[in-house]
C-alpha cells in the first residue's frame, strides 16, 4: 500500500497539473483502471479537479500504443471542437501531458499513469434508468463517429489483436470444439449447431471490407452507457470517455455492441431465457440517436449493415462465451458452474429474436437514415 501511495505521489509530481496540490482520492465506478480524483488549489483560491488513472497493464498489454491512440484521438477531437466553435471546454476528454511533454508517466514498477481534465457537473451512469439515457449514449457515440470520420483510422495501433475479427473468432471456436479438452461438447450440441449454422454470417462484414466496400473507422469498442458523461443539469450527453479500446474497425460493430447489451431486456447471464428478449423499441431509440449523431457520415453500405452489426456482435459475443466454456473457463471470470454457457445462451436468444424481427430492423434504419 505504501509503495502504491508513493507511486501516486510520483505520478502527481510528473503530470502537468496546474496549481497547488490539495488532495487525491479514489474515484468512480470503472472496472478496468484505477481512477483517482486530484484536487488543486488555484491562485484565486478556487479548486481545479483532475482525473488521474493508472492504466490496467494486465488487461492492456501495449500501454504505449494505447496512449498513442488516446493522445491522437483526443487531440484530434479537441482541434475539431476548436475549429467548430472556438471552445474546447467540457466537450471532449482532454489529456494532460507530463511536465516533459509525454502522454503518460511510467513509474519504476512499470505502472503507466495519465491525467485528464475533470469534466465537471456531469456523471456516468451504470444502468439505463430511463430510455432517454440510452438515446443520449446513442447520440454521443454517433457524434463521436461523426467527429472522427476524417481521422486516419489506419494509423491507430491494434492494441487488442483481432478484437472484432469475427471469422477468426469462429475459427478459434472450431479449434476449441475439435480439441474439446473437457469433453463438454456432447452436452451442448444445440449451442454448437447454432454457431455452425451461422458460419456465413461471421464473414459478411470482413468480406465487404476486403472488397473495399466497408470503410475502416475509428471505433470505441466499449460503447457502454457508463462511458458517456451526462450533464447533471440538462440530462444531455456531453462526451464520450474511456478511450482505452479505441482502434480501427467497423462503425457498425460499435453500433452493434451497444445494441447487444442495451436492447436486451435481461442480464447478460440470465438463466431464465424467457426474461431475455430483444427490445425493438430500444433498438429504434438507439438507431435514431446514433444516426442523428452520425449526421450523414456513414456510407450507404454501412447504413445497410447496421442490423448485421447488431446481430454479428451478439453472435460473436456468444461464440466467445461458448469457446471459453469449451476451453474450461479460462478467459471470462465465472461465478458459478456453467456461467459461460448461460451467458452464451442469452446471446443466442437475442440473435434468434433479431432474426425473427429482421425486416423490422431494416425498416427502422431506413426510417432514420
Ligand atoms: P475504466 O476503463 O476503468 O472504466 P474510465 O476511463 O471509464 O475507466 O473511468 C472510470 C470512471 O472515472 C468513469 O466511469 C467516470 O465516472 C470517471 N471519469 C473518467 N474520466 C473522467 C473525466 N475526464 N472527468 C470526470 N470523470 C471521469
Ligand atoms: Mg469506463
Ligand atoms: Mg475502460
Describe this structure in words.
There is one protein chain. With 369 residues, the protein is an alpha+beta fold. The protein is built from twelve helices and eleven strands. Strands 1, 2, 3, 4, 5 and 6 form a six-stranded antiparallel β-sheet that branches. The longest helix has 23 residues, at 63-85. The radius of gyration is 21 Å and the shape is globular. Residues 32, 222, 242, 244 line the site of one magnesium ion (MG).
CATH topology of the largest domain: Aminoglycoside 3'-phosphotransferase, Chain: A, domain 2
Order of helices and strands: HEEEHEEEEHHHHEEEEHHHHHH
Using only CA atoms, what is the Rg? 21 Å
The CATH superfamily name of the largest domain is Aminoglycoside phosphotransferase (APH), C-terminal lobe
Cα(first) to Cα(last) distance is 53 Å
Shape: globular
Oligomer: single chain
**What average pLDDT do the residues reach?**
95
| Backbone structural class | alpha+beta
Provide the fold topology.
Layout: H1 2-14, E1 20-26, E2 34-41, E3 47-55, H2 63-85, E4 95-96, E5 105-106, E6 112-117, E7 122-123, H3 131-147, H4 166-179, H5 189-196, H6 199-210, E8 217-219, E9 228-231, E10 237-240, E11 247-249, H7 251-262, H8 280-294, H9 300-304, H10 306-326, H11 339-356, H12 358-368
Antiparallel strand pairs: 1-2, 2-3, 3-6, 4-6, 5-6, 7-9, 8-11, 9-10
The chain binds adenosine-5'-diphosphate and magnesium ion (2 copies).
